[in-house]
Amino acid sequence: MKIINCPLNGPRNSSEFVHGGELREMPDPNNCTDREWAEYVFYSDNQIGVITEWWLHAPSGYWFIAERHTGSDEILRTYDPSEIFTKRVEFSAKAESSQSEEITA
Amino acid sequence: MPFSLLKYGLNKDYPFEQNADLPAPSALKSHYDVVIIGGGGHGVATAYYLAKYHGITNVAVLEKGYLGGGNTARNTAVIRSNYLTSEGVKFYSESVKLFQGLSNEFDFNIMYSRRGQLTLAHSDAAVRGFRQRTEVNKHFGGKTELIDPQQIRELVPTLNMNPADQPVLAGLWHIDGATARHDAVAWGYAKGATQRGVELHQLTEVTGVTVEQGKVTGVETNRGKVSCGCVVQAVAGMSSVVAAMAGIRMPITTYPLQAMVTQPVKPFLDPLVSSPALHCYVQQTGRGELVFGGGSDPYPLYSTRSTMDLKESLLAHAVELFPFMANMRLMRQWGGLTDMTSDYSPIMGLSPVDNYYLDAGWGTWGFKSTPICGKTMAELVATGKVPELIEPFAMSRFDTFRQVNEMGATAASH
């Protein structure tokens, strides 16, 4: 079985891990357009090459980041998210105005 | 010995040239009205219907490998229309109808064989889902029934009714379920298209797409540049990569899907059997081999390699369904690439680039839609108007949050 090197637990079987998708920047949900939000949640580069992506070590509930080649499946590097995220990300949604907003679908 | 064979034996010319189903390779022209990227089932079907129904024959199908050698040859050849949404059921039902007449139309046997497809429910939630699918299917004229364990036992006496301690509670019996030879479908369409004047260029890889002022004007290939009026992209498994050449970003993630086939045995399994809960579907081919497929791999990858752990779990589930299969030997195993969309429906129609048409997002449902896909894409190219049948599958549905949720209807759950 493929071995993934977890930054917290060391090398473990790939069956212990859950893939979390490509790392991408979240637009501000309160100020972005529908198109920008759709771009964030649905669209992806999905190219052949080295990508930066989220992984979860399920037994320990630990999220980390891996750099992996999507053609060869080689994992080049795994590291703790604190390397990229130096401060806490806040998800404060607009409490009331979001309900009164018309859905433009 | 037939005399014709003797005649060929004494012939100085290689007889293949005179009797070939496909014309010999020719030079690329500098301009085509329509360039189709991808010589798989969808690509050649589109070319075929363009020539047949719309009289458009200045068409080139560009294939980087060989005809039908990509995911057309890697699927497990299941034909069915027992989907969940009305959009999906309407679309796939038309496809099944077209499949039924293809052998006659081509004068070429695609080995279409209607066996019926049986999907197993192991939970109350699955039974409720099946009830809904039955009614949706009946409403649109499909032949689908909800059947009980006794009926399942009669249809498939060899089935273990309590696989992996998950008792079979009911079955979705789709009478129109069928299988066909996937290569033959591509060959039949290619033959019909080239006979009508379409050019099929194998070993011709598109390396770039020329877009001028938001409109596609040509493609670059490993055999030189070609200008064109419009482009149809039909490259299952590489949709995001090819679309990126035209500057288009897609709502697709590409995963491998692994399948395998056993040694041939006497016919014992008529219907196609699938169990979404066990991530497994099984069918017996006309030659007697058993074909298995499962869900996609757990993470995205552009590789058709096989992995021991996925093969192991797929086989474990297959043996739960049919315990005596534990003694059978595997002949081949392989992987294909599935372009998964988040709503499990395809992406068809217009793109952000003018005259660049998308036929993508074919995940695990591409082969079964080959005929209707070719027909509707041809209509789109010829008329410039999106046919009603594929309107719901526009890529722009993601921008307006109007997905066509087909999630409950995949044969092996994802």
What order do the helices and strands come in, and which of them pair?
The complex is a heterodimer of chains A (105) and B (414).
Chain A: E1 3-6, E2 10-13, E3 17-22, H1 34-41, E4 50-57, E5 62-69, E6 75-79, H2 97-100
Antiparallel strand pairs in A: 1-2, 3-4, 4-5, 5-6
Chain B: H1 3-10, H2 16-19, E1 31-37, H3 41-54, E2 59-62, E3 78-79, H4 86-106, E4 113-114, E5 117-121, H5 124-139, E6 144-147, H6 149-155, E7 170-174, E8 178-179, H7 182-195, E9 199-201, E10 206-212, E11 215-221, E12 224-233, H8 239-245, E13 253-262, E14 272-275, E15 280-284, E16 290-296, H9 308-321, E17 330-340, E18 347-349, E19 356-360, H10 370-383
Parallel strand pairs in B: 1-2, 1-12, 2-9, 5-14, 12-19
Antiparallel strand pairs in B: 3-8, 4-8, 5-7, 6-7, 10-11, 11-12, 13-16, 13-17, 14-15, 15-16, 18-19
Helix pairs in contact in B: 3-7, 3-10, 4-10
Write up this protein.
The complex is a heterodimer of chains A (105) and B (414). Chain A has a single domain (3-104), classed as Folate-binding superfamily (Folate-binding fold, 2-Layer Sandwich), CATH 3.30.2270. Chain A is built from two helices and six strands. Chain A has helices at residues 34-41, 97-100, and strands spanning 3-6, 10-13, 17-22, 50-57, 62-69, 75-79. Chain B has 414 residues and is α+β, with helices and mostly antiparallel strands. Chain B has a domain at 115-177 and 254-340: 2-Layer Sandwich (D-Amino Acid Oxidase, Chain A, domain 2), CATH 3.30.9. In chain B, strand 14 (272-275) and strand 15 (280-284) form a beta hairpin. Chain B starts with a helix and ends in a 31-residue tail after the last helix. The mean pLDDT of chain B is 93. The interface between A and B is medium-sized, with 24 and 25 residues.
What order do the SSEs of chain B take from the amino end to the carboxyl end, as H and E? HHEHEEHEEHEHEEHEEEEHEEEEHEEEH
Strand content of chain A: 25-35%
By CATH, the topology of chain A is: Folate-binding fold
Write down the oligomeric state. heterodimer
Q: Indicate the percent of residues in helices of chain A.
A: 10-25%
What class would the helix/strand composition of chain B place it in? alpha+beta
Q: First CA to last CA of chain B: what distance?
A: 53 Å
Low-confidence stretches of chain B: none
Task: Work out the helix count of chain A.
Answer: 2
Number of strands of chain B: 19
Number of helices of chain B: 10
The strand count of chain A comes to 6
What's the CATH H-level homologous superfamily of the domain at 115-177 and 254-340 in chain B? D-Amino Acid Oxidase, subunit A, domain 2
CATH architecture of chain A: 2-Layer Sandwich
Shape of chain B: globular
The poorly predicted ranges of chain A are 98-105
Q: How far do the termini of chain A sit from each other?
A: 45 Å
GO biological process, one term (chain A): tetrahydrofolate metabolic process
Organism (chain A): Amphritea atlantica
InterPro entries (chain A): SoxD, SoxD_sf
GO molecular function, one term (chain A): sarcosine oxidase activity
